[in-house]
Amino acid sequence: MMPSTSILKQEERNWLDLPSDVTADILKRIGMVDILENAQKVCTAWRKICKDPAMWRVIDMNDIPVLGAKLSCFEMCKHAVDRSQGQLVDITIVSASDANLHLYVADRYLRRLEMAHIFFFGKLTTVALMKFPLLEELNLYEITISIEEVETVGCYCPMLKTLKVNQRGYVGSLTRSDEIAIAIGQNLLGIRHLELIGNKMTNVGLRVILDNCHHLETLDLRECFCIDLKVDLGKQCSKQIKCLKLPNDSLEDYPYLYLTESQYNMTYNVDAYI
Length: 274
Known about the structure:
Blueprint: H1 5-12, H2 20-28, H3 32-37, H4 44-50, E1 58-60, H5 73-84, E2 90-94, H6 101-104, E3 112-116, H7 123-129, E4 137-141, H8 147-156, E5 162-166, H9 179-187, E6 193-195, H10 203-212, E7 218-220, H11 232-240, E8 243-245, H12 257-268
Parallel strand pairs: 1-2, 2-3, 3-4, 4-5, 5-6, 6-7, 7-8
Helix pairs in contact: 2-4, 7-8, 8-9, 9-10, 10-11
């Protein structure tokens, strides 16, 4: 029995015949590592698409393996940033340890910066933050932030609307600290979306935020176990905030939960030591 005409046409289909914009959309989905180490080497047409600055307006380093990659984390990021040719607007940096990486992405027209599990966050990053005047969203996961860095963001990032400073918290912690919450309330008056998962603030710090950040629409207080929302402050939150997440709400949508769960259990789960 002879194969149908449609089957023959499918067998003869050439991926290189796809429109360049369709190919670009497909390549964007395979991740930065595969583009730099594999896809761009397939053919001249694919290499041309992979070198198009528009391909690198958004850079996500979350898919870079800790081991096995031919290029280091910094080298990959540098290649990607260079290829954007000034068009970079959104970058996600995960588990990086190179002290020059943050400064390297400075002086771009960055609008969104996300960092997770960075092994340092100090004055070098503060210097970089001074160079992001168009930044609208800053997301930090499992990273310690200082008062100075909050003040820097407030001074040099006037367009910031979203701030996420998230880390795992735990019930029974004796540590209390309102410094960061107060710094946010005093310096980020135009903030609209705020996530402070695992923050050790008390009602004092939360009240400073509510009393000063009058444009605040969403507030995430999950695992903020040092606050008490059973009193009048809880009513103020419900009245003032359109979307409010409470200390005991689920962390199911926490984007880097898989990276922190084992550390969290080993550090805080008493059963692990019995």
